[in-house]
């Protein structure tokens, strides 16, 4: 057997020790992260039946808010061994038809938004009659219980609006332009009404066609040019915040731009001071909790809320939280 000098043995032992330590602290962590990622992407955490849940929203095309809702729902669906189906239509009658189609497919649970409640009332009733549990999310909290849904998950839009009014007071604002981009959406009306309830200054509602950003920009810019006393613009969705910023620049206005909802662009503009504040209703949580709640109901008969909405907001976020939020928005969870 070959013999090695003592110093060689010590050196080899040290190198092996460092190698093992490196595997443990670095490679081991990478392996653990990879394992967790794989589990999150494709493995259920339960062995319950593979139920099918359908989510039908009032989203238009390209709305980043609903991408975040879906992200949460899909994550919960993986964990709960759920076959998740998503569909949407900005037109209420078409949304109701999509819900009817889900009932015809005999899905095991339905998640639906009630932005225009009356148009969805009959569709919700048909689901209930078919024995399909329904959870409402995001909009329609006032109608959810009356329509027979298990519960509602989202923020109270009136409370959120009131929080905005209070924040504007704290910032010394005097006249606010509240931009409504979807006429007939009860949640949007509630937001602006909530602002007016607590704001000590003047609130003016501006209705715009949210399907065309150039038109939105032109409408906001024209109003800011016509009334120089407007010192704050509040948009009701994250994609419209940057459009309002551009309209402000076009008009040469000094008004602060604030917004409901959050996305990566909003987080970046909070960080650099382009926006004053945002109201986060945590859409990821709305999607995640809706799927999880339906699973709990199917598995164990559980219902959250005790007959009241399960609130996911509002949370006022400013430049102080922007750096942390920016990280979360990049991965699509805030």
Topology:
Blueprint: H1 6-42, E1 52-57, H2 64-79, E2 83-88, H3 92-104, E3 109-112, H4 117-129, E4 134-137, H5 141-147, E5 152-154, H6 157-170, E6 175-180, H7 186-198, E7 202-207, H8 213-226, E8 232-235, H9 238-251, E9 256-260, H10 264-271, E10 278-280, H11 283-300, E11 310-311, E12 315-317, H12 319-330
Parallel strand pairs: 1-2, 1-3, 3-4, 4-5, 5-11, 6-7, 6-8, 8-9, 9-10
Antiparallel strand pairs: 10-12
Helix pairs in contact: 2-11, 3-4, 6-7, 8-9, 10-12
Strand content: 15-25%
Biggest sheet, spatial arrangement of strands: 2-1-3-4-5-11
Low-confidence stretches: 1-27, 29-40
By helix and strand content, what is the structural category? alpha/beta
In total, the number of strands is 12
Percent in helix: 40-55%
Shape: globular
User: How would you spell out the order of helices and strands?
Assistant: HEHEHEHEHEHEHEHEHEHEHEEH
- Quickly count the helices: 12
Rounded radius of gyration (Å): 25 Å
pLDDT averaged residue by residue: 89
Features:
334 residues, alpha/beta, 6-stranded parallel sheet, 12 helices, 12 strands, 16% strand
Give a verbal description of the structure.
The model is unreliable at 1-27 and 29-40 (pLDDT under 50). It is globular and about 60 Å long. The strands form 2 sheets. It has a 6-stranded parallel β-sheet with strand order 2-1-3-4-5-11, with helices on both faces. Strands 7-6-8-9-10-12 form a 6-stranded mixed β-sheet, with helices on both faces. The protein has 334 residues and is of the alpha/beta class. It is built from 12 helices and 12 strands. 54% of the residues lie in helices and 16% in strands. Helix 3 runs parallel beside helix 4 (117-129).
């Amino acid at each position: 057997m070959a013999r090695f000098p003592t110093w060689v043995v010590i050196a080899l032992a040290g190198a092996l020790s460092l190698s093992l330590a490196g595997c443990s602290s670095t490679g081991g962590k990478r392996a653990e992260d990879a394992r967790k990622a794989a589990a999150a992407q494709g493995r259920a955490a339960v062995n319950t039946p593979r139920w099918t849940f359908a989510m039908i929203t009032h989203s238009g095309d390209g709305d980043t808010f609903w991408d975040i809702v879906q992200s949460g729902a899909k994550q919960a669906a993986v964990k709960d061994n759920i076959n998740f189906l998503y569909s949407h239509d900005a037109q209420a009658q078409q949304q109701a038809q999509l819900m009817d189609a889900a009932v015809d497919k005999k899905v095991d649970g339905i998640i639906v938004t009630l932005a225009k409640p009356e148009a969805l009332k009959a569709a919700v009733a048909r689901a209930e009659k078919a024995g399909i549990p329904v959870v409402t999310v995001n909009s329609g909290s006032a109608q959810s219980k009356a329509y027979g849904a298990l519960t509602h998950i989202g923020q109270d839009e009136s409370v959120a609006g009131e929080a905005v009014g209070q924040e504007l007071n704290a910032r010394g604002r005097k006249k606010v332009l509240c931009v409504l981009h979807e006429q007939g959406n009860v949640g949007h009306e509630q937001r602006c009404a909530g602002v007016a309830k607590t704001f000590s200054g003047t609130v003016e509602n501006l209705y715009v066609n949210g399907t065309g950003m150039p038109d939105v920009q032109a409408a906001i810019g024209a109003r800011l040019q016509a009334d120089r006393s407007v010192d704050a613009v509040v948009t009701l969705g994250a994609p419209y915040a940057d459009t309002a910023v551009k309209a402000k620049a076009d008009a040469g206005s000094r008004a602060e731009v604030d917004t409901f909802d959050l996305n990566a662009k909003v987080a970046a503009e909070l960080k650099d001071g382009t926006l004053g504040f945002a109201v986060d209703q945590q859409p990821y949580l709305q999607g995640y909790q809706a799927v999880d709640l339906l699973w709990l109901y199917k598995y164990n008969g559980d219902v959250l809320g005790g007959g009241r909405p399960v609130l996911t907001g509002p949370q006022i976020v400013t430049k102080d939280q922007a750096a942390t939020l920016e990280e979360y928005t990049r991965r699509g969870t805030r």
